[in-house]
Design brief:
The protein has helices at about 25-35, 55, 65-80, 95-115, 145-155, 175-180, 225-245, 270-285, 300-315, 320-330, 350-360, and strands at about 5, 45, 85, 90, 120-125, 160-165, 185-190, 215-220, 250-255, 290-295. It has about 375 residues and is α/β, with parallel strands linked by helices. Helix 8 packs parallel to helix 9 (about 300-315). It is globular. The model is unreliable at about 335-340 (pLDDT under 50).
C-alpha cells in the first residue's frame, strides 16, 4: 500500500497557451514520461480528478468572476483563438473545463487523505493556482486550487486549522489575499524578493484583523541556495507549524526556485527539494497530520519533473531508511568530501539577516520564535 496517492489526468494538457509560453502542456508530459521511465507509475496509487462545481469554486472566488471565465472560454471556442486575460494568462477553448478539473483534483486529494487511506497526496495539475485572486486571473492562474482545497478541508474534514506552505519562487499573492484576515488558515510563503509580483511578499504583510500574525512571508534574496531554504524552513516554518498545530498541511509545490529554472535566479537543487520534502514529511509524522501537495510553477521541464518526483518519493517512503535512500539517489557522484552537493547562498550574510528579521518580527505573535 502506497503512502501517497497521485491525482493526475491527461485532460490537464487540454489547456492551451501560446507557443513558447513557459506554462505549457509539456510540463505534465514531462512528469508522466519520468514516472514511466523510472518505473514509478505504479508505485503510487492513482486517483482520477473530478470537476469542481461552480458552488465549490465560489467558496473563494466571485460568482461573477467564475461566469466571466466561462464566457471567455466560449468566446475562445467560437473564434478558435486564444483569449488573453492579461499579459501572461490565457484562455483556450477547453481552459475553463480544465481549470474546473484542476480545482476538483484538489478536492479529490483532500477527500482521499480524509479517509485515512493515505498520508499524503500530490495533485499534478495545470493551470496552476496560487496567484489567482478573488475576482481576477493572474500569473498563469485562473482558480486558486489550493485555496479552494483549504476551504474544502474545513467543510468536509472539519479542519479547524489549515497550514499552507508555499515554496514556489514567486510570492503566492492570491493565496495570501484570500486568507489575509483569517486565522483558521496560516499561510507561509518563502520566495525570491524583490521579484514578481512586484511589491508583493514583504514580511510586514503579516495579516489583518483576526488574521494578524497568521500570514508569514519569508522574502529571500536572489541567489539563495539550498542552505538558505533549509535555514528558513528550520528556523521559521517548523517552529510556527508545531506551535500552530494544524489539522492538515497543504503545499504549493512550485519548483521554479531550481537552479536550472529559466524564470528565476534561486539556486535550489533537486536534492534540495528532496530535503525540503523530507522536512515536510517529518512534520507530518511528528504532528500526525496529512499533507496535500499542489503543483504550481517550474518551467524547466526536466528539473521540475525530477523535483516533483523527489517530493512524491519522499512522502511515499515507508521508513527513514527508505527516505534516506531516496535522498542519496540525488547526490551527485564524486561530491567533495562525500558531502551532499547542496548549494550555498551567494550572499549568506544577507540571507541569514533576512531570516533573523522575519523571526524577530513574528516573535511578537509566536512564542516559538522568541
Amino acid at each position: 500500500m502506497s503512502r501517497l496517492a497521485l491525482v493526475r489526468d491527461v485532460k490537464f494538457r487540454d489547456h492551451q497557451t501560446p507557443e513558447d509560453h513557459p506554462e505549457s502542456p509539456a510540463r505534465l508530459q514531462a512528469i508522466d514520461k519520468l514516472l514511466t521511465s523510472a518505473a514509478l507509475d505504479q508505485a503510487f496509487e492513482q486517483l482520477q480528478p473530478r470537476a469542481a462545481s461552480e458552488d465549490e469554486i465560489s467558496k473563494v472566488h466571485s460568482p461573477a468572476y467564475i461566469e466571466s471565465l466561462h464566457k471567455e472560454a466560449q468566446l475562445a471556442a467560437k473564434n478558435k483563438a486564444l483569449i488573453a486575460l492579461d499579459a501572461d494568462t490565457f484562455m483556450s477553448e477547453k481552459t475553463y473545463e480544465t481549470a474546473k478539473l484542476a480545482a476538483g483534483a484538489g478536492l479529490v486529494a483532500i477527500e482521499a487523505v480524509g479517509k485515512e487511506t493515505y498520508d499524503s497526496t500530490f495533485v499534478a495539475v495545470r493551470p496552476p493556482g496560487h496567484h489567482a485572486l478573488f475576482d481576477k486571473a493572474m500569473g498563469f492562474c485562473l482558480f486558486n486550487n489550493i485555496a479552494i482545497a483549504a476551504r474544502h478541508a474545513q467543510i468536509e474534514l472539519g479542519a479547524k486549522r489549515v497550514m499552507i506552505v508555499d515554496w514556489d519562487v514567486h510570492h503566492g499573492n492570491g493565496t495570501q489575499d484570500l486568507f489575509f484576515d483569517d486565522p483558521s488558515v496560516f499561510f507561509v510563503s518563502f520566495h525570491q524578493y524583490p521579484f514578481w509580483p512586484p511589491d508583493s511578499g514583504w514580511y510586514t504583510e503579516d495579516g489583518k484583523g483576526e488574521g494578524k500574525g497568521y500570514n508569514m512571508n519569508v522574502p529571500l534574496p536572489k541567489g539563495t541556495g539550498d542552505r538558505g531554504y533549509f535555514a528558513a524552513f528550520d528556523q521559521l516554518v517548523k517552529p510556527v507549524c508545531v506551535e500552530y498545530e494544524p489539522d492538515v498541511i497543504l503545499l504549493s509545490a512550485g519548483y521554479d526556485a531550481h537552479e536550472l529554472d529559466p524564470l528565476a535566479q534561486q539556486r535550489v537543487t533537486t536534492l534540495g527539494f528532496a530535503m525540503l520534502s523530507q522536512r515536510l514529511a517529518d512534520l507530518r509524522d511528528q504532528l500526525g497530520v496529512k499533507i496535500v501537495c499542489f503543483l504550481e510553477g517550474g518551467y524547466n521541464t526536466r528539473s521540475m519533473s525530477e523535483s516533483a518526483l523527489a517530493t512524491m518519493r519522499i512522502l511515499n517512503a515507508s521508513s527513514a531508511e527508505d527516505a534516506a535512500q531516496v535522498q542519496t539517489s540525488y547526490v551527485i557522484p564524486g561530491a567533495v568530501g562525500g558531502q551532499s552537493p547542496v548549494t550555498q547562498d551567494m550572499s549568506p550574510g544577507q540571507v541569514d539577516q533576512r531570516i533573523q528579521d522575519v523571526r524577530k518580527h513574528f516573535s511578537h505573535y509566536w512564542k516559538s520564535l522568541r
